Amino acid sequence: AHRADAVAHFLATKRYAWFVHPVPNAGVGADIAAVLRSTDFDVPAALRALLASAHFYDAAVVGARIKTPVELALG
What we know:
- The chain is mostly helical.
- The protein has helices at residues 2-19, 26-38, 43-52, 69-74.
């Protein structure tokens, strides 16, 4: 159980850093980790929860994650 909590927290903070802001928000990370644990590590469900959260559209984090030219070319 402890390992599952650690893995969920790790995955949640990595997804947060990739999609929202390089410095993870602890509260949102914990919420996403809870979604991961409750859905048996269903990553698409966790991403939907992250991208649908009010925090994702907060003015403080909108535009904080700017893609590098390599990320744009690969995308």
